[in-house]
Automatic annotation (TrEMBL):
The keyword Cell cycle does not apply. CDD domains: ABC_cobalt_CbiO_domain1. Residues 6-246 form the ABC transporter domain. Signal peptide: none annotated. This is Energy-coupling factor transporter ATP-binding protein EcfA2. PANTHER family: ENERGY-COUPLING FACTOR TRANSPORTER ATP-BINDING PROTEIN ECFA2, HEAVY METAL TRANSPORTER. It is a peripheral membrane protein. One of its GO terms (cellular component) is ATP-binding cassette (ABC) transporter complex. It comes from Fictibacillus phosphorivorans. ATP-binding (A) component of a common energy-coupling factor (ECF) ABC-transporter complex. Pfam families: ABC_tran. It is found in: Cell membrane. InterPro entries: AAA+_ATPase, ABC_transporter-like_ATP-bd, ABC_transporter-like_CS, ABC_transpr_CbiO/EcfA_su, ECF_ABC_transporter_ATP-bd, EcfA2, P-loop_NTPase. Keywords: ATP-binding, Cell membrane, Membrane, Nucleotide-binding, Translocase, Transport.
Amino acid sequence: MEISINRLEHRYMQGTPFERRALHDITLDIGDGTFLALIGHTGSGKSTLIQHFNGLLKPSDGSIKMGSTELKAGGKKQDLKPLRKKAGIVFQYPEHQLFEETVEKDIMFGPRNFGVSEEEAKKTASKVIEMVGLPQSVLTKSPFDLSGGQMRRVAIAGVLAMNPEVLILDEPTAGLDPSGRVEIMELFYNLHEKNKLTTILVTHSMEDASKYADEIAVMHKGELYLHGKPSDIFNQRELLNQAGLDVPETVQFLNKWNEVSGQNLSLSSFTIEELAKLVSLSLKKRGN
Ligand SMILES: Nc1ncnc2c1ncn2[C@@H]1O[C@H](COP(=O)(O)OP(=O)(O)OP(=O)(O)O)[C@@H](O)[C@H]1O
């Protein structure tokens, strides 16, 4: 689903002496099926922005269009419900929101709330539990008898059960160990690839942004500071530094390598594997 943000502004506590502008004049188009990483220093406005995608926050000015549904400043409350269904948000530590007696009931909660029949909701639970890589036997268990990683998968299944057209991930790997982080990111990436799901990943990890995203949007002081392909963004290290960010370590290494060796090598996927291949090839060429 295409997303179009037009001159979006958000002010907290609008009209009070405590009014605070968190977003200013954001204009951003996200194409259908794009994987976009949203990065920025703490307090730059990332969470405020993503809460507009499913109508948890309303624009103070400007608008956001999700497919055919548009939410404008001053829009009505009933405009929000269609957005809730279109955009599934996986918040930080989503497992904290599990509350039902069984995994199945927890996953069924969202669809039932939207008027889906008991039978249909059960079918959905069985489908999405598989999508997150858990066995059917988990459905009858209490979510609180599962491991932290399994609980997170159940919470993600609950979001997928709503069949969202856009998946919004707010630092979805926070608090996981390195292997758990990779597993969850690969899960999202595969969902994105398989279903051509438009995906927006809020992350502090330049490595994840460079590895998974087609496009990167950088927020700084409530404004959209940079937006483009990873390779374009990483060419602007000075600007990134000014926003309190840096390029991934693979790019830092290659920049140093080029400086020392006088070469002009460049990366396309920014992974350690690609970097190792590139350097080893260049060493072979030089006869080392
Ligand atoms: N409920 C709120 N009331 C008032 N101000 C808020 C509220 N939530 C956020 N802010 C302010 O809005 C600005 C943007 O915050 P936001 O949480 O969107 O940033 P962020 O980039 O998501 O930060 P982080 O990476 O730390 O999660 C900050 O100055 C923050 O203090």
